[in-house]
């Protein structure tokens, strides 16, 4: 029998540990796998020889695996580390594969988003080109919902539910004051506006906000934005606006780009305060009360408002990855394929990692209003079934019970 290794990477979600739970439980039950290892802090954990035995942690405790499913963020920790091209420098690849061979690891599962799939691609290519006996499977994760090859990503549904719920609560808070106001809510989304679009789900029979929604797929015009606000002010006293952090002008410059800042290791520009930038502009132009709210990391790991549908799908995607790996399938990412919208149904499949790594899936332009101030009913119907259901979270002394992560804290 061989062993397997699991790692997590990129930004956290409410359900990435549900995928981890799926991999662990399926691996422990599989007769082809002897020991399940976890790498602390993604691919860097392998480079730093920081592995833990997950079989010893979870094999005798199904209860722990259940709690893991509803523990937010990343039990194994994360990293944002870009492997060099093997053709340029093989040093780290040789170290990684030496460690994997020493631990008799045949199956490697990497749970992450776009940048993590870059690592899956590079490791699978290196294994193939150098006749290494390693099966590499990518397991999708990102609140941004911007991975190719899958209808949606685990993590998105729960984050979308948090965004919609928060916008609804902000609306109720805003309407109590009888003074003109504009509230701008900044939501994560560098180049893809899926998460910001979820703000539209806050509209109910008792709430028509957000009044405007701006996504990064379509150029943002300050002039048009201010004109839209002035038009709405004629009939509505309190206005609520949802904006993606990555909205850009017609020249594709980020509205909030940091001057003289360096990109991160994957070439992503560092952004700073889209909501705050717009707050200052609106305050000067309209002269009314203006407030900006940045949801920031709160939308990533809010298990208390997670989607049960999202948790269940994340778990099954992790379990399916083990099934594929043991069959010898490698260099793939597990995918969710929607087969029907109402009632919502789906199947699990896989896609070549080359079709996913270093690519971004954006919202189709036809799903965005022509003036980039709203989204279509099609987009709302696409997101809606992904937020259904509430998890059964255990509580103690009024607080949710999550797994101990002292292995991340006390290093």
What does this structure look like?
It is a single chain. The chain has 411 residues and is an alpha/beta fold. It has two domains: 232 residues, 3-Layer(aba) Sandwich (Rossmann fold); 143 residues, 3-Layer(aba) Sandwich (Rossmann fold). It is 34% helix and 19% strand. It has 13 helices and 13 strands. The strands form three sheets. A seven-stranded mixed sheet has the order 3-2-1-4-5-10-11, with helices on both faces. Strands 7-8-6-9 form a four-stranded parallel sheet, with helices on both faces. The chain has a two-stranded antiparallel ribbon with strand order 12-13. α9 links the parallel β7 and β8. α1 packs antiparallel against α4 and α1 runs parallel beside α11. The radius of gyration is 22 Å and the shape is elongated. Its EC number is 2.7.1.90. It comes from Vallitalea longa. Its cofactor is Mg(2+).
End-to-end gap: 31 Å
Beta content comes to 15-25%
Number of helices: 13
Give the neighbour order of strands across the main sheet.
3-2-1-4-5-10-11
Gyration radius from CA atoms, angstroms: 22 Å
Active site: 144
Binding site for substrate: 142-144, 188-190, 245
Site (Important for catalytic activity): 141
Catalytic activity: beta-D-fructose 6-phosphate + diphosphate = beta-D-fructose 1,6-bisphosphate + phosphate + H(+)
């Amino acid at each position: 029998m061989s062993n397997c290794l699991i790692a997590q990477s990129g930004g956290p979600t409410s359900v990435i540990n549900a995928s981890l739970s799926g991999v662990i439980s399926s691996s422990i039950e599989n007769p082809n796998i002897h020991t399940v290892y976890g790498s602390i802090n993604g691919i860097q954990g392998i480079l730093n020889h920081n592995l833990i035995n997950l079989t010893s942690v979870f094999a005798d405790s199904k209860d722990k695996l259940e709690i893991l499913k509803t523990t937010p963020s990343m039990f194994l920790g994360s990293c944002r580390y870009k492997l060099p091209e093997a053709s340029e420098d093989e040093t780290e690849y040789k170290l990684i594969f030496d460690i994997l061979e020493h631990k008799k690891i045949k199956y490697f599962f990497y749970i992450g988003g776009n940048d993590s799939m870059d690592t899956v691609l590079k490791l699978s290519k290196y294994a193939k080109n150098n006749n290494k006996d390693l099966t590499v499977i990518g397991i999708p994760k990102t609140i941004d919902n911007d991975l190719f090859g899958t209808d949606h990503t685990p993590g998105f549904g729960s984050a979308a539910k948090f965004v919609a719920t928060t916008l609804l609560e902000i609306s109720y808070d805003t309407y109590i004051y009888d003074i003109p106001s504009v509230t701008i809510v900044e939501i994560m989304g560098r180049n893809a506006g899926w998460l910001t679009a979820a703000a539209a789900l806050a509209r109910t029979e008792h709430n028509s906000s957000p009044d405007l929604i701006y996504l990064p797929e379509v150029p943002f015009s300050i002039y048009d934005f201010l004109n839209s606000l002035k038009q709405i002010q004629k009939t509505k006293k309190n206005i609520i606006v949802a904006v993606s952090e990555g909205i850009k002008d017609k020249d594709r410059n980020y509205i909030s780009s940091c001057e003289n800042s360096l990109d991160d290791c994957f070439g992503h520009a560092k952004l700073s305060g889209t909501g705050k930038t717009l707050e200052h502009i609106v305050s000067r132009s309209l002269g009314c009360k203006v407030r900006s709210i940045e949801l920031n990391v709160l939308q990533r790991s809010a298990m208390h408002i997670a989607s049960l549908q999202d948790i269940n799908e994340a778990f099954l995607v992790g379990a399916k990855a083990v099934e594929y790996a043991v069959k010898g399938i490698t260099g793939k990412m597990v995918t969710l394929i929607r087969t029907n919208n109402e009632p919502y149904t789906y199947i699990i499949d896989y896609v070549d990692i080359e079709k996913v790594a270093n690519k971004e899936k954006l919202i189709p332009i036809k799903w965005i209003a022509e003036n980039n101030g709203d989204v279509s009913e099609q987009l709302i119907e696409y997101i809606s079934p992904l937020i259904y259901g509430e998890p059964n979270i255990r509580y103690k002394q009024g607080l949710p019970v999550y797994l101990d992560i002292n292995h991340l804290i006390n290093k």
